[in-house]
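An example makes the point: we print one protein in full, the chain in one-letter code, the fold tokenised, without further comment:
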Amino acid sequence: MDTKLTFKLNGRSVSINTDPLRRLLDVLREDFKLTGVKEGCSEGECGACSVLLNGRMVTSCIIPVGAVDGQEVMTIEGVSETEGGKLIVEAFADGGAVQCGFCIPGMVIAAYCLLKSNPEPTEDEIRLGISGNICRCTGYDLIVESIKLAAKRGEKIWKK
């Protein structure tokens, strides 16, 4: 049975009539055409479908859309429009951290969460911050270096 759900999506209020048990991932991709959110494992283990829910990183493949009613969701499309998100995307490109691009939205979301809470992370803290996000192409060293670059370039942004 469909239910009207209203939530904030990338900064704007949206409503949808849908089965509240549908996966948030499917609603974002199919109904809102936000294809930066990827389906990888369908079990919440790979990070490709990561989004922010009230500022916390979650895997949208295991969240029923009914759970976000009245909440705030931000996808890679929304994060990449923020000052910090743009900076991370640029650092990933400059640092050579992008190959196939499948994992990058989740990695950018993880980096964004990390740098917002810890503007000067150590390498170990960066590795912990992106844990749960799987990359099969680039490997983690270039991603870690790119996050260090984003931290350095955005000192004023992250310390607000």
